[in-house]
Design brief:
- The protein is mostly beta strands and 107 residues long.
- The chain folds into 2 domains: 50 residues, Laminin, CATH 2.10.25.10; 40 residues, Laminin (Ribbon), CATH 2.10.25.
- It has 1 helix and 8 strands, in the order αββββββββ.
- The strands form 4 sheets. It has a two-stranded antiparallel sheet with strand order 1-2. Strands 3-4 form a two-stranded antiparallel ribbon.
- The longest helix is centred in the N-terminal third of the chain and has 7 residues.
- The model has no long low-confidence stretch (mean pLDDT 84).
- The chain binds calcium ion (CA).
- Its main location: secreted.
């Protein structure tokens, strides 16, 4: 019998008496059962809400425009960069836009 919530050196005994909170499906995405406790984790692009159970999309555009040179479009689990009509996507970076040129001078 385990008298303490957390006793790693008696792990094999503790696990028997530990309640697996993950069996109750308390997490929106994924649950990690810990001795005497549990932890909810979220997929990439999401952050754990204050309730410790639900996952919330991270608006990457709130931070430095998501690294986009022009437009940033937030999406669930990610984001994308976009270019205004006067620009086109740079071939070097998906985050950068370059002015559309009709002449062949600029690169
Ligand atoms: Ca997002």
């Amino acid at each position: 019998m385990c008298l303490f919530n957390f006793c790693p050196h008696w792990r094999d005994v503790c696990v028997l008496s530990d309640i697996n909170e993950c069996m109750e499906n308390m997490c929106e995405w994924q649950c990690i059962n810990l001795p005497g406790s549990h932890l909810c984790i979220c997929p990439r692009g999401y952050t754990l809400q204050r309730d410790g159970r639900h996952c919330k999309d991270i608006n990457e555009c709130n931070q430095k425009n998501g690294g986009c040179s022009h437009l940033c479009v937030n999406r669930r689990g990610g984001f994308k960069c976009a270019c205004p009509p006067s620009h086109r996507r740079s071939s070097y970076s998906w985050k950068k836009c370059m002015p559309k040129t009709t002449a062949s001078s600029a690169g």
